[in-house]
């Protein structure tokens, strides 16, 4: 398309109009490849321009860069997103000579000698692939070259898309897979008349692989899985309705899809986790998020290669871990609660470090058994703790019993205080706890590490509980332990982690080694908890979904380094990057959504009311409906679910949805242009068509050029300061650049 | 069924002509069944003819068709024509009597505050006393209770302090609980009539009513001063009216057509005005009406003009009617509650000033224009109520995270009225604090200083907001603030007390004074944090002067009088229009962050509701284990949940079979099943699924609106099974099926009686008796006495 405008200066109107005619007809392979090649060149030019700047950590690069380093160093870490995206980034880094030594401490940190460009280049290439893939997708949906071109242009010239794709982030990778799945789906759809051929199988498998990629980068990849799922159902429905085939034919189709679109993605997804667990074999910052058994597999963790008795028996010294993400150990120390925190007794807390004060002795509630004489006998058999037993926990270092009573807890006043009480293990009836195994029945033996249990206070009936709330200074800011009257509370579960008892044979911890599937599921539980925990804090200004389509506010990627910024000529060298969608395209897209709704209703009503139309016109409308419905559905699936999400949301969450709506704009613009023959005299059609198309593309290009400083770097004074260079671009008050 | 199936298929193979013959009179034997099948067959042929003409030969579309297009009739309700009878009959009457008997039985007991009566009883008292209160749910239900309270002679003087407190002698418990109980009783015949309208047989519809009668959860919820009985009744009645309205499809704009349409949305609007969750059933109504319109479009018998008129009428009914009902309930709310009350300070100063007493009496006679020498309290206008505050006490030298601080005097936002909330407005160039003569009002854009009244230190900001103490170090005071009036146009750009919304922009940094919502640690006495923010355009940077007086000179008393006389706050300006009050209240209700109790003992997840995992303890007797526990009838509950799956399964099979052109059931039964899907299943889904995406603490009673639809569905499934069995092997299978239903009913009755002790809560129970009722270990019935 660009070629056409530039060629026009050559002054050969006949060949140009011929070319445009071919372009409109979309029949010619040569034209197709010319257009495609041109778009490819433009894409590379816009994406690779100033890829190396800023030469410091921008925005979330601080997270994903850090994670890439962890992969390269093989240290275990925890993140709420699945691993594929980060592993790809790590792979880009590894292959281009990044050594994993850079800290990625905070945005603004200079890269200096670090080989960071490889990672940026890898992400950018995946992001750049969006444009040609959008082109192909729309081509498959419409078989109209102009529609594909307009669609690709709307993504190509979107400043926000360029910005988001130029950095070490998960988003370019996620969008690559989403777009890949969409492209595969549309390719596959067009193979529907030759089922079970090689290309039919391969496009379906391609779609399945892309789905696996999408969902294993971020969980929002699920939306594209739903999209493909819905279309597969529709597909099967159509096949079922074809009475010329027996039902077994439908079953065959169904099984093929189950294989490629369910089984294959599942296997690939799990394989990603397999690689993740295999690569991250060393202890690291993520250990504490996982259970004791999991930790025992990490080199360098204190549980690695440990050995201890399996059963918990009376007389053993144990540590108790609160069974939740980053749960800490039950702890006590010889300091008392201050008078304002209830009865002045010894503090009980949870503490995340391993420490002698975490050790408790398990005793029968009534007697100090077994006595030393008994233990000394050769045929001594230790008695072990069973679910439902009444027990007493004595703090080994201070010989005080775990105790609770009807006094409010220090921080959470609805709960009861838990303290250390008694002298040398002799306390009162408030020291008695009933141990209740979860997923087990009364009388079941309790094992170390694997079994979860509750400790119910015998007298009050509340459950030993801990959470993230910290005690004030007097409690050394350790976490509060309470007795919760709601015994079903989520954090009232504990497990024994260490178990010292020399009367029982030690077994190697290796037997608790979780299988891959157990690790896989545990990682998911932890991830879901982590995601649910990403709540905005009170008073924090967060991005809301309604703001996104109207381009209400962008996102700073780089603010230079405000501390080091000094007045004077230095200022000009600071580069600021502001990710914000091209408002012309974004607002235009909103208009296209409304326009499509009107056209859809209009077409439905006119056909339902029996308006006479040519067969060609009906086909044209049916094609529009097919393509646009599909893209609208994709957009809605990638946008509306965010309204229901409680977690913290960001502006860049909208970009996958934006891809689909940009593609729809291409289809719709082409439809409108092809409707011209009805409005213009026939000999003017070609000229008008060209004029409109050129104007449309020029607007896109010019607006991209206008907002390009946001993408490639702004300098000079900030907003509202004198001499701000971008005042003419501040079309909305809410924009911050 | 299998027999019938093959039978049908065989007939399908007959030529159309033969089939037509079968119904055009050649049938001499009186085999009704055969005739029926023949009619179906004809319908089908007609349909397939139309369908084929639709898809293959579109040109035939434009040809005028003299005969009635059968395409439209497929979407019409099963019975096709008008059902003259609204379905209220002896069975309905019996249900009503049964409902009244169970609901009114010992209605006055327990004579103590049960569960949310705590709130609704209190609100009724406020209505009786015309005192303003704030609640995040709409008022209609509370007004109905208040009406009962009014007629029962309740004087509103009872302090609802906590759940379980005894009602005093003379408190009309019975009267207040009567209205919900009656509504809960009417729910049974209403549900019965709704099913009858949907074409369900009389025994099955009666069964639905009986199941609702036997459900302990519905019963508990109907017996106390709660909102759900109204919500449920209005929802069911609304849907009933709309189904009735659908029967008049062929007679648009006739009196019943208009009447039922309007009545339907009046009820649904009323449901929404009781609780916002009524919106979900309103949505169901809108979907029904819109979908019917959509299917009307291809109907060529309807002219385009008629279509437009229908569109207008339906849109008006969907949008305007509920809005009118909703608006009316708020009109009553705001007119009745004209006195200041307990929850005033949730609202803006202007709103409070419009209420009798309270703030209005304080600010009466206070001067209007703020200027140099004005003493004001500055209120955080939107969101949480608090006033700009300072006190002796400085920021710690180092914060917990080791950041250093300015060590200046603390400034915070304080939620209570306090002498330390007073500030004096001062122009930077005048040192005397007294008001000048002539008086200098502060205008939009003026630069001022704010001097804290009790400590005489000026509001200052270096990153953190403080009152400046001159330590004689290199940190100079930065205590100039620019006044930006948001609504300056209304007041001629002069800062007025109460009404002007002000942003204080720090000079020269350009940051705005902001309330952050965070609590300061202990050193700040847990007051709320105030900072300066670069982002100026946000709600939390808006302040307004609330209380206001002038700093007056000792001597010139005459001047004082002049000023007080001239600048009197005109009372009329404090009168907000009803519309302004309505919109403010709506916004407040919309954005009111209810402090939700996380991890409440009896909270439950939407997924738990289907299996009746947890109940809610409503009340426990202080002397015994007698208690009211909100828990459904397990026999009814689980069957209701299962019936939803059964419907989906049955319809799934039919759909797949129909796709292969196997028609297993008569066409009118099929249409009926489709209608049930549109109304009952969709009603359930709309009332249930949204709870998954709302992030809030929920209880089992949030499920009740959806649950009603689930119970209706279980009766519909029974109905359908009997229709199916009637077509197989002469129908004798219906006998064992009936026995099965009876067995199920017996189980329901048994469970009902078994749990009625914790439903009525009048029987003292022993600990083992209570434990015997905990059928699932997640049912936490309370045992606190042996």
From TrEMBL, chain B:
Its EC number is 2.4.1.109. Belongs to the glycosyltransferase 39 family. This is Protein O-mannosyltransferase 1. Keywords: Endoplasmic reticulum, Glycosyltransferase, Membrane, Repeat, Transferase, Transmembrane, Transmembrane helix. Gene3D superfamilies: 2.80.10.50. Interacts with tw/POMT2. CDD domains: beta-trefoil_MIR_POMT1. Residues 367-428, 491-548 form the MIR domain. It comes from the Eukaryota. InterPro entries: ArnT-like_N (IPR003342), MIR_dom_sf (IPR036300), MIR_motif (IPR016093), PMT-like (IPR027005), PMT_4TMC (IPR032421). It is an enzyme of class 2 (transferase). The chain crosses the membrane at residues 230-246, 253-270, 276-294, 315-334, 634-656, 676-694, 706-725, 732-753. It catalyses: a di-trans,poly-cis-dolichyl beta-D-mannosyl phosphate + L-threonyl-[protein] = 3-O-(alpha-D-mannosyl)-L-threonyl-[protein] + a di-trans,poly-cis-dolichyl phosphate + H(+); a di-trans,poly-cis-dolichyl beta-D-mannosyl phosphate + L-seryl-[protein] = 3-O-(alpha-D-mannosyl)-L-seryl-[protein] + a di-trans,poly-cis-dolichyl phosphate + H(+). It is a multi-pass membrane protein. Pathway: Protein modification; protein glycosylation. Residues 67-79 have a biased composition (Low complexity). GO terms for cellular component: endoplasmic reticulum membrane. Rt/POMT1 and tw/POMT2 function as a protein O-mannosyltransferase in association with each other to generate and maintain normal muscle development. It is found in: Endoplasmic reticulum membrane.
